[in-house]
Amino acid sequence: MVRLYTEELNIGYGERLIVKDLSVEIPDKKITTIIGSNGCGKSTLLKAITRIIPNQAGTVVLDGVNISKESTKILARKMAILPQTPESASGLTVGELVSYGRFPYQKGFGRLTQKDYDVIDWALEVTGTKEFKFRPVDALSGGQRQRVWIAMALAQETEIIFLDEPTTYLDMAHQLEVLELLQKLNVEQGRTIVMVLHDLNQAARFADYIIALKDGEVVKAGDCEEVITHEVLKDVFHIDAVIGRDQRTNKPMCSTYNLLKGDSTPNEKDSDPVYPAVSVNY
C-alpha cells in the first residue's frame, strides 16, 4: 500500500504553471530522490506535497486523506521538511533549535515535557550532535549545522522526511556524512526519505527510487537502473552521458558527459544549456 501520492497535480506561481498534471507515488519506507534541471519543478513539488504552497489543481493524498483537509498539527506529526537553505534566529543553541521539532506535540502554554526532552536528546544522539547541544548553531560548520537541522526534523517523530538539496554548499566529506546518516535512518528506523539532489551519482548510490522531472512533468520514475541511463539523461539534462558502473556499489554512474550540440530533438533546440552537478569521486 502506498501512503503518499499525488493525482493530476498542477502547481504554479501566479499564471505561470510549473508542475503539470503530475501523478506520482512515493514508496513507503524507501529513499526517493527527485532529479532534474534547474527550474523543472523539483523544489516546487516538494513544497506542494508538504503543503508549504498550495496546488492549483489535483490532490496530494497521505494515508487516504487529502492533505489540504488535514490539520496542521496532525500533518506535522506525519511529515517533516528540511528546506534548501534553512535559517534560524541568531543566537539559538543547538538544543533550542532541535526543540522546535516538538511543536506539533505541545499543548497549552507550550512547555516541554519530559517526553519532549527525551526525544530531543535521542535526536541529538542519533545525528551525532549531542556534544553541540549548548553551542550556538551559528558557531557550527556546514556539515554540523545540517545534521542539527536533521535532528530537528527527527524530533518531530515523523515517519516521512523531506529534504530539499540537503548537500548544497557542503564539501564532499560532509555530503557523504549527511547522505549516509539519511540512509541509516531509512535502513534502521524505516523512515521514508524524499529528497532533491543535483548530483546524479549520489542519487544512484543512495536512492531506492528516482523521479526524473523535466518542465514539471515526469520523464521517468523507477530504480536507478531504469533512470540513470543515456537516453533519460539526454532527455532530462540535454547531455550525452557515458554510463559506467560504480566499483563499490555496482550501480550505474555517469562517468563523463558532453553537452549535446547539433542533434537536439525539436523541443530541445531552443532550450538553454543545462550543466548538471555530477560528482564521480566516490
Automatic annotation (TrEMBL):
GO terms for biological process: iron ion transport. Residues 4-240 form the ABC transporter domain. Keywords: ATP-binding, Cell membrane, Ion transport, Iron, Iron transport, Membrane, Nucleotide-binding, Transport. One of its GO terms (cellular component) is plasma membrane. Residues 261-282 are annotated as: Disordered. PROSITE patterns: ABC_TRANSPORTER_1 (PS00211), ABC_TRANSPORTER_2 (PS50893). This is Iron-enterobactin transporter ATP-binding protein. It comes from Peribacillus simplex.
